[in-house]
């Protein structure tokens, strides 16, 4: 599904990528748009096919929600192309990476693989909180090198709006907080292996 999402974004960003990332396969002309459509279509179908074969509802819903948000993020249709709006774009990335993936994969393992009731444990809450910080950094950091093309094509990323340096140092600060809390959680853990690994 990630290949579908990233590939779809590249299909709708060919002109932007000619400025920002001219070596990408579509922007450079190595792949034709038709080849790009074929690739993303096959990978979307494979993702849903795998979800159907496995038969896990949490896994299927993770794929479906990721598909919907990834499509809404990139496609240039009315009410979509959410990547144009910095906050909405960040929420799409955060929603998939921090919330959907964490919760759905946890529920898949707990309820489908192990056949246990879903109990939202402290490690799950911690992993989701950590990935929330990490996903915000991904959402902000990925646009830092793309400022020129984004500005030309009207993509109002945080890097365009606030400047590359400010976004970079905000990301560094968020990572320091996330890893600082992770270290603190590990050091204060009652589990000896967790404490030892953290140290």
TrEMBL record:
GO terms for cellular component: membrane. The keyword Transmembrane helix applies. One of its GO terms (molecular function) is transferase activity, transferring alkyl or aryl (other than methyl) groups. It is found in: Membrane. It comes from the Eukaryota. Keywords: Membrane, Transferase, Transmembrane, Transmembrane helix. The keyword rRNA-binding does not apply. Coiled coil: none annotated. The chain crosses the membrane at residues 31-52, 59-79, 85-107, 119-141, 167-187. It is a multi-pass membrane protein. Pfam families: UbiA. Belongs to the UbiA prenyltransferase family. PANTHER family: HOMOGENTISATE PHYTYLTRANSFERASE 1, CHLOROPLASTIC (PTHR43009:SF6), HOMOGENTISATE SOLANESYLTRANSFERASE, CHLOROPLASTIC (PTHR43009). This is Homogentisate phytyltransferase 1, chloroplastic. It comes from Aegilops tauschii subsp. strangulata.
């Amino acid at each position: 599904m990630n290949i579908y999402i990233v590939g779809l974004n590249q299909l709708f960003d060919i002109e932007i990528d000619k400025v920002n990332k001219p070596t990408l396969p579509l922007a450079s002309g190595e792949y034709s748009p038709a080849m790009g459509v074929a690739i993303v279509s096959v990978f979307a179908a494979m993702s849903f096919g795998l979800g159907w074969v496995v038969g896990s509802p949490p896994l299927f819903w993770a794929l479906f929600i990721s598909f919907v948000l990834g499509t809404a993020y990139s496609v240039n249709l009315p009410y979509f192309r959410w990547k144009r709006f910095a906050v909405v774009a960040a929420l799409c990335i955060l929603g998939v990476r921090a919330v959907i993936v964490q919760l759905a994969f946890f529920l898949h393992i707990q309820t489908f693989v192990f056949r246990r009731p879903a109990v939202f444990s402290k490690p799950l809450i911690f992993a989701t909180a950590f990935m929330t910080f990490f996903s915000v950094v991904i959402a902000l950091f990925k646009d830092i090198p793309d400022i020129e093309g984004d500005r030309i094509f009207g993509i109002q990323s945080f890097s365009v709006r606030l400047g590359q340096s400010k976004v970079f140092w905000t990301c560094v600060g968020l990572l320091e907080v996330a890893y600082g809390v992770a270290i603190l959680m590990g050091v204060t853990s009652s589990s000896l292996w967790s404490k030892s690994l953290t140290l």
